[in-house]
Design brief:
There is one protein chain. By secondary structure, this protein is α/β, with parallel strands linked by helices. Among the domains are: 117 residues, de novo design (two linked rop proteins), CATH 1.20.1440; 235 residues. The protein is 22% helix and 36% strand. The protein is built from 8 helices and 30 strands. The protein has a 26-stranded mixed sheet that branches. Strands 5-6 form a two-stranded antiparallel ribbon. A two-stranded antiparallel ribbon has the order 21-22. The longest helix has 22 residues. The protein is globular, with a radius of gyration of 26 Å.
């Protein structure tokens, strides 16, 4: 075999050197090699371009142009903008190809850079792709739902259809409830209901494996989903799948738009809009949940404990492309169980006023945009929490959250009033709160523009690990709660605890935060090796 020489040899040598730590981790049978995250692959490309300049294979302006595009890619990753990152990578490949075409870069070296860019693009694509699991997938349940029959009987529903329909495509039922009643009368183990475009005012109870499939009205400019005004409940150990349908509680008094309570229930939502829920938009206790292209909007609380847009208790959950917007009473609450989310957007959330008035911060739901509690495990990629009020993400009571390429920003405080109606104190305004026992790990993250604390840690066992990210433009960056008057910070909420620990193990760009007694300054030039822990509470 001929030895590799010239600029390509340098590029290969640099790549192998940088990959060595990752390859070393795979040496032991008990510690298999972990795939490179996109920002790690970007670091390889950075080093390759820099080495090509050092070896005079690239001129200064050429290398600077390529490095600038890679930096834009990295910033887009860390701000939870995968589409922008992919666009910048396309710019990078165009520039490399142009250099090759002009003879400014030899073809073999150019192909090496293009392969590296392709690896980054592939890594981003793999993180974006969350497969829709095969039905059902409930290995933890002793009594799994009845699986669908090879050919599920199909019934048709159309608003305004003549009375006396038999559920066929020619003579559809005029209500979804009629179709479900017919399925029960026929002792069907499973049923698929094709819901024609229209508005259906119904409260539906699921008693068998049921698949509701909407037939939207599609035009050149818009797609309008069929609408169920009312509620859907499932208290049985069966599966419920809803596709291409809008569910709304507007004008009803029923608590919850979609309610599922059974340890062996399975729920799958695809292209579903849930709006104007009373108490809850979606509530599930136990079982399994999968949501793709799911939106929950404008939920309203009814008490201090009923007021969360999307609440899951002890559920195995997968989410992809989910948006929770303009909900009053909290956004997402994960209590126990496990959640894996990709492309989760929570915006314009307001805390439940009943919970704020009566309860402690840690015990009541509905006070934060994302609440991870009670030993839950939350893994999120491309999570964006923007423009929420009180707290962006709250991790506590034994829960653990792992964020990759995620952004939390612009969390506002709220005003508390005294008994005379005067504006007594402002509270909240924190992008992230970790309360012990609770842990947070953030990789490739951005924490921006919190009205008070970018990240607040309190209580014995509150720990966070930050790797490759930015904490900027907050009133205070990383907060020491012991330095605050807790009544000024949280009103009647008691956050007095022992030490919180923040361990920075890789570069964090910490800048433009107000300095003072309530802030800890991180070293933005820290090397990528673990320094001694920074103790936030002296």
């Amino acid at each position: 075999m001929n030895a590799v020489r010239g600029p390509l040899a340098v590029v290969v040598a640099v790549a192998l050197c940088l990959l060595a730590p990752h390859l070393a981790r795979s040496a032991g049978p008990s510690d298999p090699q972990q795939p490179l995250l996109p920002h790690d692959a970007l670091a390889l490309l950075d080093a390759q371009v820099a080495e090509l300049f050092k070896q005079q294979a690239l001129k200064g302006p050429q290398a600077a142009s390529l490095l600038k595009v890679l930096d834009k890619t990295r910033r887009s990753l860390f701000r939870g903008l995968p589409d922008a990152a992919l666009g910048h990578l396309n710019d990078f490949t165009d520039k490399v190809q142009s250099l090759v075409n002009r003879g400014a870069l030899d073809k073999v070296t150019g192909e090496t850079l293009l392969t590296g860019a392709g690896a980054v693009q592939g890594g981003i694509a793999s993180l974006l792709k969350v497969p829709f699991p095969a039905w059902p997938d409930i290995g933890f349940c002793t009594g799994p739902p009845v699986p669908p029959l090879p050919k599920i009987p199909t019934l048709y529903v159309q608003e305004g259809a003549p009375a006396g329909g038999d559920g066929s495509s020619v003579h559809p039922f005029r209500s979804i409830g009629a179709a479900l009643t017919a399925a029960a009368g026929g002792a069907l183990g499973a049923v698929q209901v094709m819901v024609g475009f229209g508005v259906y005012s119904e409260h539906l109870e699921i008693t068998r494996y049921t698949r509701l499939v909407g037939l939207p009205l599609v035009s050149a400019s818009d797609t309008i989903l069929p609408v169920i005004v009312g509620s859907v409940t499932n208290f049985s150990p069966v599966g419920l799948e809803i596709d291409h349908i809008a569910l709304t509680g507007f004008g009803t008094t029923h608590v919850g738009v979609l309610t599922v309570e059974n340890k062996c229930a399975a729920t799958a939502l695809n292209d579903v809009l849930v709006t104007d829920g009373v108490g809850f938009g979606i509530f599930q206790h136990g079982g399994w949940f999968d949501g793709h292209d799911l939106r929950v909007e404008r939920t309203h609380p009814v008490s201090s404990v009923f007021g969360v847009a999307f609440q899951l208790e002890g559920v195995e959950t997968t989410l992809a492309n989910t948006a929770l917007t303009a909900n009053l009473g909290g956004g997402l609450l994960v209590s126990g169980g496990r959640m894996t989310a990709s492309g989760l957007d929570v915006a314009e959330t307001e805390p439940n006023p009943y919970a704020l008035a009566r309860a402690t911060f840690s015990t009541n739901p509905g006070t934060t945009a994302v609440d991870v509690r009670d030993d839950a495990a939350f893994t999120g990629t491309w999570v964006r929490l923007t423009g929420n009020t009180y707290v962006g993400m709250f991790v506590h009571t034994g829960a653990a959250a792992d964020l990759t390429y995620s952004r939390v920003e612009d969390t506002a405080e709220i005003h508390r009033y005294d008994s005379m109606g005067f504006d007594a104190v402002n509270v909240g305004g924190h992008d992230i709160v970790v309360s012990g026992p609770g842990t947070l790990r953030a990789t490739g993250f951005t924490i921006l523009s919190a009205r008070v604390c970018g990240a607040l840690f309190t209580g014995d066992g509150a720990e966070a690990t930050f790797m490759h990210g930015e904490i900027a433009y907050n009133e205070f960056g990383a907060c020491d709660p012991a330095a605050f008057d807790t009544h000024d910070l949280f009103g009647a909420i008691d956050v007095v605890g022992d030490d919180g620990v923040l361990t920075e193990i890789a570069t964090v760009d910490y800048h433009d935060n107000r300095e003072g007694n309530f802030s800890v300054t991180l070293d933005s030039a820290a090397p990528p090796v673990p320094p001694p822990p920074v103790i936030l509470v002296p």
